[in-house]
Structure formats: C-alpha cells, structure tokens
Design brief:
Elements lengths: L2 H13 L2 H16 L14 H13 L7 E9 L9 E8 L9 E6 L5 E6 L4
Antiparallel strand pairs: 1-2, 2-3, 3-4
Length: 123
C-alpha cells in the first residue's frame, strides 16, 4: 500500500463521525427552538388563514355572497392602503368568469374587524 491510500483511509475513518454529530446538532437545535416565537410573524398579527376566515365570515354574513370563494389574500402593512395594517382578500363567485362579480374584503390585521368591502372596480 502506498502512503497516499493509507492517508485517505485514515481521513475517511475520522470524517464519518461528522455525519452523526451534524445530525445530533440539528436535532438539538430543532428541540431548543421548538417553542420559540416565529420572527417572521409579529405577535398580535392574524395568520393568513385567520384573516381569510374573518373576511369570509364578514362576506357571507351579507345576503347574496354564499357562492363566493377565496381567490387570493395579501398582507398590507400599516400605511400602504390606509392607517392600519390589514388582510386584503379577493373573492369570486364560483359561476362567474374572470373578475365579474368579484369582491374585495379588507379586515384589520390584529383582530380581523371589517374595514371595508367593495367590488373589484372600486364600487
């Protein structure tokens, strides 16, 4: 055996330990951060699903909107569309083509209170 092949074998024997150590480190970090708050989601802000649910409840409480379904939801930070942060949710009637009879519902980002409801053309 030449010296380069024994050096390679020795290096392989030492580096195999890195894989289980890396897995152990990742597992420990996962367990340590499990209950930590998500920095991407500030405290007091509704999640997208909660914002959609509040907007849908506000829309369906009015007659004639039972067939409307969610098309898209977007977060609007404070100052972008008005004085407070909000979820802007677009609904479209199931049987409609394009954006006709579509409705935009805006709810506050903290508690889901209705801000306004309007047609896509700004009606």
């Amino acid at each position: 055996m030449n010296s380069s092949s024994t050096g390679s074998a020795t290096r392989r024997r030492r580096t195999w330990l890195l894989y289980p150590l890396w897995i152990l480190l990742c597992g420990l970090l996962f367990a340590a951060l499990l209950g930590a708050p998500d920095p991407a989601r500030p405290a007091g802000r509704l999640t997208e699903q909660e914002g959609i649910a509040k907007a849908e409840a506000a829309l369906k409480s009015r007659p004639g909107f039972d067939s409307h379904r969610v098309v898209h939801a977007a977060w609007s930070p404070e100052g972008e569309l008005g004085g407070e942060s909000r979820w802007v949710v677009l609904f479209r009637a199931v049987e409609a083509q394009g954006l006709q009879s579509s409705v935009v519902v805006e709810v506050t980002g903290d508690e889901g209170r209705l801000i306004r409801m309007r047609g896509v053309g700004g009606e």
